[in-house]
Amino acid sequence: MRLSLLLTGLLTTAAQAAMPQFDLYLADVSQGAIRSAQLISPKAAYINQPTFSKDGSRLYYTLEQTEDKTDIGYYQLSDRQHGVLAKTSLSEYSPTLLADGSGLSTVVVEADGSQRLWKIDWHGKASLLNAEVKGVGYHAWGAQNSALLFILGDKEDNHTMRYLAPNGSLTVLATNVGRGISWREGGKVAAFVTQQQGESRLTFFASDANKLYPTQLALPKGGQDLLWLTADQLLVSAGQRIYRLQSSGESLSQWAENAKGWQPYLDLSAWCKTEVSRFAFNSTATQLAFVCKK
């Protein structure tokens, strides 16, 4: 089994070749509540990792095309039509907007099993983005082309979070990490998940100071996927809900100290009877895309 299956958040064996299936929903959000939601999955398949275009007109996602083979698909909101941005012989995961607006970055599983960052431009042309860093599972871009990278280890507690600086240097920040990564607006402060004493906890990273801020802030049970909604609101999906952590402070240590604990933010149980995985908001936070495990 290729390493790409680790991207699904599962550790599996060769006997379990089928990729897990998810439903993809698009919801309208107003004043902290779901006003309506619709199932938009194009077919029964592995469909995950949604992300909106900058203007919110398209939703990109990872889509299983054939068994254990994925491409980057999209949903055009104006005409409710699905398409595929690029069909390649390789598998692409984790579509992420590039800051310069030239396309998407993706994690590509190459023919020899290497997992590296590639770029897919808006015409569907795929090219290698970073040749040096291998074993990438997940990634998130910060300021000045910096990035946080989840790098696969030989076993689950050896996965590492690494910082790719604007000058190209790579630094290991933490070991035994989860897949959740999110940069606050401006791309200089990030949150990611570390496993500590049997709990998933938040760790903050300030890129300007190149400093880590581990915290005792445990995520709700089952929570992994993070998203900064605003500078004072951090979200996580867990079970059938999205939870919110609100706080404030001049420094990250103050922010963590002032946090009041995770509170229910959006209840998705009317549409998801199992558990919510990845989710994304458009730039105005008026639309939410989320996936529900079948």
From TrEMBL:
* Phylogenetic lineage: Bacteria, Pseudomonadati, Pseudomonadota, Gammaproteobacteria, Chromatiales
**Keyword Glycoprotein recorded:** no
Region forming the signal peptide: 1-17
Annotated Gene3D superfamilies: TolB, C-terminal domain
Does the keyword field hold Signal?
A: yes
Any Pfam family: PD40
Keywords carried by this UniProt record: Signal
Protein's recorded name: TolB family protein
